[in-house]
Amino acid sequence: MSIGIKNRSVGATAMNAHSSRSHSLFQITVERSELGADGKQHIRVGKLNMVDLAGSERIAKTNAQGERLKEAAKINLSLSSLCHVISSLTDPKATHIPYRDSKLTRLLQDSLGGNTKTVMIANVGPADYNYDETMNTLRYAARAKNIQNKPRINEDPKDALLREYQEELAKLREQLAQLNSGADPEEVMRGYGVMGNIEQREKTVFVEDKAKM
Questions:
Q1: Whole-structure pTM over 0.90, yes or no?
Q2: Hey, how many other C-beta atoms are within 10 angstroms of the C-beta on 13?
Q3: Are 52 and 24 contacting, i.e. CB atoms less than 8 angstroms apart?
């Protein structure tokens, strides 16, 4: 992290004496090995991305020139690409997510629309002079808030299948214990959703038979 901070470009503009002239991404990958029910070691992998985005700029306010102007153009372009990705992720009709439009969105692909939990903090200023920028930031954050990810455990498919079988076996043992204690079989099956599945299958068979007739 220290090396990254030293390499990060920082410069003065008319609005900020220490303006970030680049985005910053710090990535940590963690692997965990644990003993499974089968007596073997199983690996789980997790990744943490910590991102500091450079703020969008209006050239008229920052008076950026020369190298600072080029930096501002690149910053605004990558933030615009990020905005397009967020808009696509929240649009149910979107058929393509433009992750490859910038290096930033490519690096953050699995943090935005993948198997992840993501928190975005939007920074705004209280001055009425920055009203337009504040409103744009809030709209940006409102769109990002609508992204719905479905995080799951990163594990080998065989381990996931084994875990599902173990959970199913535990349910069956619990059902058997209830039946042995004298519980009503139908109530036990209905409690675990079994009766609903059986009734649904019976309806399906009835419809199929009726169609054949």
A1: no
A2: 19
A3: yes
Under a CB-based contact definition with an 8 Å cutoff, are residues 162 and 37 in contact?
yes
Longest dimension (CA), the chain: 84
pLDDT digits (tens, 9 = 90+) for 158-180: 666 666 777 888 888 888 888 88
> What does the alpha-carbon distance between residue 2 and residue 40 come to, in Å, rounded to a whole number?
39
Distance CA 96, CA 94 (A): 6
Q: List the beta strands (DSSP E) in the chain.
A: 10-11, 19-20, 24-35, 41-52
The contacts of residue 49 (CB under 8 Å, 6+ apart) are 25, 26, 27, 108, 111
Q: CA torsion angle for 38, 167, 157, 114 (degrees, to 10)?
A: -140
